[in-house]
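User: I'm writing a tutorial on reading structure tokens. Could you give me a worked example: one chain, its sequence, then its tokens, then a sentence or two explaining what the tokens reveal?
Assistant: Sure. Here is the example chain.
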Amino acid sequence: MARILDFPIFLVVSAVAFAVLLSLSSATHTYPSDPVLVCINNCGQCKMIYGEYFNGRQCAEECLSTAGFIQPDCDEADSIVKYLRRKP
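And here are its predicted structure tokens:
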């Protein structure tokens, strides 16, 4: 009588399925390694959070002029205070 799940075949199929799921999950959590792109992404994130009160253009221009040396952090006021406006 044949078994429904033959162990070697089940093991191979499980390993392939695990590898596919692992590659898909790691592909969705990749981050750019270019400091300029990281900086501009951070500026965009802050713009989404603070809206009209955040000068995203100035932030992005500074990312380009400093080659990504600055790293704005929306949770750290010291890193974004120069891009905040009182009135939109």
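What the tokens reveal: The mean pLDDT is 78. Helices lie at 7-27, 35-50, 56-65, 77-80.
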